[in-house]
Amino acid sequence: QDAGAIVRAQRLKTVEEIAKLASEHRVDAVIVAGDVFENNTLADDTLRKTVQAMRYFKDGKWILLPGNHDPASAESAWTRLERIGIPENIVAATSEEPNFLGEKGLAVLPAPLHRKHEVRDLTESLGNRKTPDGVIRVGLAHGSVEDVLSGEWDAKNPIAPDRTSLAKLDYLALGDWHGTFRVNDRTWYAGTPEPDSFKENDTGNVLL
After folding, report:
1. CA Rg, the chain, in Å?
2. What are the beta bridge partners of residue 187?
3. What is the pLDDT of residues 150-188, one digit of tens each?
4. Which residues contact 135 (CB under 8 A, 6 or more apart)?
C-alpha cells in the first residue's frame, strides 16, 4: 500500500474518532476552522468517505469552514459536496450566514476564505453580524493572528489579536496554525487533530 493511501485512511479514521468523542461528550457541534480537505482536487470518492466518517456524530451539527487549502472558490470541494449531497447536520460554512444552534442560544459566525490568500482581515465583518440579545457569539475563521505566533506570523489572511473584543464575541475558533495555541482566554487555535510534520506545535488535539 502506498504512503498516500495510508495517510488518507488515517485521516478518515481520525474523523471517525472525533465523531465518537463528540457523541461521547454530547456536544452541540463539531466546529472545524478551515482546511477540512487538503486541497480542492480531491476525488469525489474521498469526499463521500469523509462524510461517511462523520456518521458517528448525528446528535449535533458539523460546521465546516473553508480554509486556504480548500477555499470556497467557484469550483471546489465544496461545490462538489453540494452536488453529491450531504446530511442536514453537516453545514458547509461557505457564506457569512450565521448558524444558530440550541434553539438559537448559540450563533456560529463564519468568515470563510473564497481564495487562498486575502490581504484584508475577513474577521472585521464579524462585528457587523447581528444576533439576538443573550445569544452566545462564536466566531469561526482561518488565518494568522498578528504579532502572536512567535515571529511565524504570515501577512496572508491576517486576523486582529483583539477580534473577540472588537466584534463582541464570546469565543473565536481559529484554524491555520498547525498546533494547539492559546491567543487569549477567548481565542484559540485547536491545531491539527492528527500529528503532522510540525513537530513542536502540540498537534494531535481537539478542544472541548
Report:
1. 16
2. 172, 184
3. 555 556 899 999 999 999 999 999 999 888 999 999 999
4. 100, 104, 105, 106, 107
89-128 residue pLDDT tens: 999 999 999 999 977 799 999 999 999 999 999 999 999 9
Residues 83, 73: contact at Cβ < 8 Å? Answer: no
Write the burial class of residue 12 (CB in 10 Å: 0-12 exposed, 13-18 middle, 19+ buried).
middle
Report how far residue 188's alpha carbon sits from residue 175's, in angstroms, rounded to the nearest whole number: 9
Q: Between the CA of residue 109 and those of 28, 47, 76, 146, what are the distances in Å?
A: 15, 24, 22, 20
Distance, C-alpha 30 to centroid of its chain: 9
- H or E element that contains 128: none
Count CB atoms within 10 A of the CB of residue 42: 17
CA 175 – CA 179 distance, rounded (Å): 9
Query: pLDDT-derived band of residue 69, with 50, 70 and 90 as boundaries?
Result: very high
**Backbone angles phi and psi of 39, in degrees to 5:** -165, 175
Round the average pLDDT of the chain to a whole number and report it. 91
CA distance 135 to 62: 19
